[in-house]
Amino acid sequence: MTATFESLGLPGPLLASLAKAGFETPTKIQAEAIPHQLAGKDILGIAQTGSGKTAAFGLPILAALQALPGRPRPMTARAVILVPTRELAVQIDEALRKMAGPSMRLTTVLVLGGVSRYNQVQKLAKGVDICIATPGRMKDLVDDDKIWLSETRWLILDEADRMLDMGFIGPVKEIASKISWKRQTALFSATMAPEISKLAEGLLREPVRVEATPQGT
Ligand code: ADP
Ligand code: MG
Known about the structure:
Keywords: ATP-binding, Helicase, Hydrolase, Nucleotide-binding. By secondary structure, this protein is α/β, with parallel strands linked by helices. Helices cover about 45% and strands about 15% of the residues. Magnesium ion binds near residues 53 and 54.
């Protein structure tokens, strides 16, 4: 039977904005990952580009954020999404805003290298729901006490294999080490190289493994 977004357990307001964004049927990785994430499980996702990872990790966070009272505290981020490139960060930010819809008043910040820190620091000072970041700049701001990870409840590592290739493993581990173990973590990668398995072992707790790639190809 084909899953629907409703059958995955997503709340009503989110279903409405999803429909508006033109999302009708969940992709395989979304159908497999979302129910586990809504249940609080860590996820180890093996999925190629175009499989729909953004909604797979984004929708459960948006669902939880909608149910949280109040605004984020100054200097904190409720969720941190680490990505290898600026382009990817911008895409994810746009996709999450579209899925959230205007009524949620989602606050996000892009923490990216190669551009001025000033606006990033200003936004962080107010506190944000979701921080989407490349690891190098994020580590700098954490080290300089411009963002506190004490209240962060979700950590996502998107395209972890590319972050590894780009030499971001050090900052990724350091950022993760500053976030409480009570967090929920999801790691997505196109491949399951030994280094990725090792990273996942260090960062995830009894993860559910989901795959969008066909077996044996
Ligand atoms: P990935 O991160 O795995 O490369 P994306 O999350 O960027 O994939 O999604 C790829 C494209 O598919 C995007 O344009 C996105 O809007 C679209 N998409 C994702 N999930 C769905 C869905 N359930 N229904 C329709 N379009 C979708
Ligand atoms: Mg993606």
